[in-house]
Hints:
The chain is of the alpha+beta class and 590 residues long. The chain has ten helices and 30 strands. Strands 21, 23, 24, 25, 26, 28 and 29 form a seven-stranded mixed sheet that branches. Helix 7 packs parallel to helix 10 (568-588). The longest helix has 29 residues, at 447-475. It is extended, with a radius of gyration of 39 Å.
Amino acid sequence: MKVVKHISILFFVLISSMASAQVKFEAKVSKKTLGVNERLRVDFEMNKDGDNFNPPDFSNFNVSGPNQSVSNSWINGVRTYKKTYTYFLTPKKRGDFTISQATIVIDGTVYKTVPVKVVVTAAVDKPKDPNDPNFIASENIHLVAEISKTNPYLNEAISIVYKLYVSPNIAVDNWNEIDSPRYNDFWSQNIDTKGQKVQNGTFKGEDYRYLILRKTVLYPQKTGKLNIEPLSLNLSMRVPTNRRDIFGGSLMTRVSRTVSAGNQTITVKPLPEQGKPADFTGAVGSFSFDVTSSKQVLDASESLQIKVGVKGNGNLKLFKLPRLSLPSSLEVYEPEHTENVKTNSAGMQGDILDSYTVVPQYKGKYPIPSISFSYFDLNTKTYKRLNSDEIIIDVQNGPLNNANANTENTNANSNKQAVVLNNDQFAFIKTKTNFTSIKPNDFFKTNLFWSLLLLPFLVIPIAIVFRNKKASRDADVYGNRIRKADKLAKKYLSSAKKSLGQKEAFYIALEKALHNYLKAKLHIETNELSKDKITVLLLKKEVDAQVIKDFEGILESCELARYTPIDIVTMQEDYDKAAKTISLIDKQAR
Length: 590
């Protein structure tokens, strides 16, 4: 009986050890049905440590995380290990979604989770906990879009100012735009807001601090109801909790939140048809109009400048200036257009100018007739027309026009114009040919023929050498392991560089790269990674103590960075320091 009893105990121990050795990697969700205004918690749990954890694509959710936790316990001499990656997901829309597979490598084997289906319904009514950090954040921070006018005329300037109101009870550490508005059907220009300071104000009757994030001037290009898309920000902030420190002060917790300014709709009025001039080109505002000449007395073949300009406030960049009409005896070049326009919250201000270069060919007096410019005046809500003065150009010295010199042929030539030659007078003559040879070109015994014939004989020795080197490389098991780990470290360094500016993702990738490098260089496993052992092994390899200290400092930075605000400059410095330290260890290790 004793033998049977001992065999039973041994059998039970073996079964228990086999069960404990079985690797588990699974995904768990906090709920499978949630409202669009709720959050979903997803845990990826494993009972053995692994590498290269790759989460699924959460494209239908806003993601917070991952948060990593590890637990070790011994019960009746049996060790229980659990490592968890936790994500908090906020759905972007309603629908049926699938949390796809996550993967991880454990002891050289790739494990995958089972996909999980979740259903996102319409928003649900849920009690508001005044101590919930997310509720505190939502009630104490607001993004507002202030529009100067909601019913402008076509091509009338309006401004939109985005203000971020923050309660004195919370602190904003950082923000970034996740969705910038696209001003369809508007001409738009952003106003520089750099150097703006935080100001004190009120929001819904309560004291707030606010910062102007963006100013934009818009000129509507269509009539009717036009939509202005919202500006959306992702904010990292600290909010108070109901916990107190030893001095009685409120402890703060860090939360992230997305805020939007909300859609805005304006109604654009068309310009009145009554009284609209025939030469109206869309100018709206308040303007002055002038036509000037640099010279009024000159000789033939001398040049003068005639400038047609409009000055004032309005849509200066959105209409055309009237054209000059000059006598045929004056040679006129295409005008040079210049703009001296500044844009502020009130719209465009400045002047635009067309400068014509004119060269008279004959002696005589030439009138520059008056031209007109029409615009819609926003102050009086009427159209106005401005006329220029007539200008007389007196050409005193030069050849006489044949029409004036020969009075007998005045009537005969009154309707004739001089033939003007240009650079395209011989354009009909072809200067390029597409002739082809009538003698056939045989492929046999050409250079290409001999090259293709000899190429296989050159490729065969190269293929043999390549195959031998590949076989030798495949047989080097230890070297392949080192190369594989080095490639892995480079991969994670590359991932860290791509994540610059995203604090959590950057430091997770950087920490993984450092750990994989150590495992490749020191030939140790993940569960052997400890500060003391790393120091001892690197000293044995004759690595300088200062380099080891720098390496440990980078690892500590990766840990601390998750709990402290970090800017992109600090991230770049940590990345450069990590690359430099890895290079020094490679050079010094024996």
